[in-house]
Amino acid sequence: MTVNEVFEIVKKNICLVIPELSTHNFKQDDRLVDLGANSVDRAEIGMLSMEALSLNIPRVELFGIKNIGELAKTLFTKHQAIQKG
Amino acid sequence: MVSAGIEAINIYGGSVFLDVSKLAKYRNLDNARFENLLMKQKSVALPFEDPVTFALNAATPIMESLSAAEKDRIELVITATESGIDFGKSMSTYIHQYLGLNRNCRLFEIKNACYSGIAGFQMCVNFILSQTSPKAKALLVATDINRFLSAEAGEALTDDWSFAEPSTGAGAVAVLIGENPQVFRVDSGACGYYGYEVCDTCRPVPEHEAGDSDLSLLSYLDCCEKAYIEYHKRVPDADYAQSFNYLAFHTPFGGMIKGAHRNMMRKMTKIKPDQYENDFQRRVWPALTYCLRVGNIMGATTLLSIASTIDNAVIDSPKRIGCFSYGSGCCSEFFSGVATPQGQELQKRWNIKGGLDSRYELSMEEYETIRSGSGAVRFGTRNVELNNNLIHSIADFLKGKGMYCLKRINEFHREYEIID
C-alpha cells in the first residue's frame, strides 16, 4: 500500500458521500469544507476510509487534519504502524 | 425484584421558537448541504426565563397529577444541567420549594455536558432499585438553555461552530422515577458506559460555549460504538438490528443521528446499506420528531428523544427502546428499557405535541432583540427587577398560560412567579 493508493481511497469515499464531486479534479491541498462537506460528511469520509484500510483506531485521532492530502498521509502512517505491528 | 423507571415524563419546549431555515439564511449558512443537517426549529429562552423556570414549567403538570401522599414520597430531586445559575446553590432547591415538596428529600445538581440528564436518570433509577427507601420516588429535571448572546468564532473555533446557533435550543424535561414504571421500564443492569478526557466542547464562561464540532462529532461516534460494545458484553444476546424496536439517541441535530445510525448499522449488523434509510425512518424517526422542533437542549436531549419516541412510535405491544447519551468532555452510555401501550396512553395527558404547536413563532427581528441581551440576566447578577414586556406581542401571548417566570433577583436570591 502506498500513500497514493490511500489518497485514491479517500477520493473514492468523498465521491461516495458527495456524489456531485465525481467529476472533480482532486488536489492534495483540497479542504473538505471547501468541497462543500459538512461536519457529518467529513466524519463519514474519515470513517469509510478507515474501514477500507481495516484501521481500528479512535476516530478522534483524525482530528486536526487540514486537507485531504494530509488525511491520506495520516491514514497511511497509521496503516503502516499497524502493519509493522 | 422491584422494577424501576419512568412513571411520568413531561417536556417544556419553551413558549417561543425560531424557524431555523430562516436563521440559516439570515446568517448566510444556507450552503447546499444545510438541508442534510436536519435542523427545523429551535426553542428560545426569553429574558425573564432561566433554567429554573424551564424546569418548573416541565415539572408542574406532573406534580399536579399526583395525590398529596404520592408527592410526599419524592425523596430525591436532582437537577441536571450545564446552565447552572450559581456555583454553590443547586437549582433543585428552588424547584423543591416552588413545587412544595416534602423536606425529607435529597437535593442536588449534577453536570457532565449533554450526559447530565442520563447521569441523573441512572442515579434516580439506582436509588429506586437499591430499595433503601421502599416506595420512594425521585424527580429528575434536566434543564438547559443557551442564549447565544454573542457567539463569535475565534481562532480555536472551527468555521462550523456557527452551526451551533441554529442547532441549539432551550428546554427542560421532568421525569418522575419510581417502582411503577408504566411509561418506560429500565432493563436493570443493561447498560454500557464509556468516558475519557477530551476537550471537544465546553462552557468555560457562563454565557458562551467553545469547542470544535468536528472533534465532538468524532468523539460522539467513538463513544456510541464503545458504549454499545460494553452493553453487548453485559447483554450477550442483544442484536443491534433486532433487539431494539426503537432507538432514542442524544440529538445535537438530526443529520448527526442519521450519520451515527448509518455507522452503527455498518459496524453492528449485517443489514445491507440500501436498507439503512428504511431502518432509520422506522426505528429512529419517532425520537427525532420533538428534537427537531426544540433543538439541542443539551443535558435534557436524550430524555427528550425518549419522550418523543414514546409519543410518536407505534407501541401496540411492549416495545424495547435502545437509548444512547453522549456528553462532551466526555462520558456516554447506551442503555435500554421497555415502553408499553398503557404508558403511551398515560403520556397523552401532558399533550406535549400541543405544547410545541402552540408556541409563538419569533420573527428574525424579535429574535435579534432577545439575543442582543437587552433584559437578559447575566450570571452573577446581584439585584434586578425583570420586565416581561420587552416585546409587547409576546407579552400578550404569554398572558394566562400559567407559565413561571423570573420576577426579581434580590441579593442573589431569585424569586419566581406565574405570569397572570
Report what the structure shows:
Chain A is mainly alpha-helical and 85 residues long. Helix content of chain A is 54%, strand content 0%. Chain A contains three helices and no strands. The longest helix of chain A is centred in the C-terminal third of the chain and has 17 residues. The radius of gyration of chain A is 12 Å and the shape is globular. With 420 residues, chain B is an alpha+beta fold. Chain B is built from 14 helices and 17 strands. In chain B, the strands form four sheets. Chain B has a nine-stranded mixed beta sheet with strand order 5-4-6-7-1-8-13-12-11, with helices on both faces. A three-stranded mixed beta sheet of chain B has the order 3-2-14. A three-stranded antiparallel beta sheet of chain B has the order 15-16-17, covered by helices on one side. The longest helix of chain B is centred in the middle third of the chain and has 22 residues. Chains A and B meet through helix 2 of A and helix 7 and helix 8 of B.
SSE map:
The complex is a heterodimer of chains A (85) and B (420).
Chain A: H1 3-17, H2 39-52, H3 68-84
Chain B: E1 5-12, E2 16-19, H1 20-26, E3 41-44, H2 51-64, H3 68-72, E4 74-80, H4 91-99, E5 106-110, H5 116-130, E6 137-144, H6 164-167, E7 171-178, E8 184-195, E9 201-205, E10 208-211, H7 213-234, E11 246-249, H8 254-268, H9 276-294, H10 301-312, E12 319-327, E13 331-339, H11 341-347, H12 352-357, E14 360-361, H13 364-371, E15 384-385, H14 392-398, E16 404-410, E17 413-418
Parallel strand pairs in B: 2-14, 4-5, 4-6, 11-12
Antiparallel strand pairs in B: 1-7, 1-8, 2-3, 6-7, 8-13, 9-10, 12-13, 15-16, 16-17
Helix pairs in contact in B: 2-4, 7-8, 8-9, 9-10
Number of helices of chain A: 3
Low-pLDDT stretches of chain A are none
The largest sheet of chain A is: none
Count of alpha and pi helical runs of chain B: 14
Apparent shape of chain A: globular
The two chains with the largest interface, and their residue counts, are: A-B, 20 and 26 residues
Approximate shape of chain B: globular
- Total count of strands of chain B: 17
Share of helical residues of chain A:
40-55%
Distance between the termini of chain B: 47 Å
What structural category arises from helix and sheet content of chain A?
mainly alpha
Computed over alpha carbons, the radius of gyration of chain B is 20 Å
Give the radius of gyration of chain A. Answer: 12 Å
Overall mean pLDDT of chain B stands at 93
Please indicate the percent range of residues of chain B in DSSP E strands (runs of 2 or more).
15-25%
Number of strands of chain A: 0
Q: Please provide the ordered H/E string of secondary-structure elements of chain A.
A: HHH
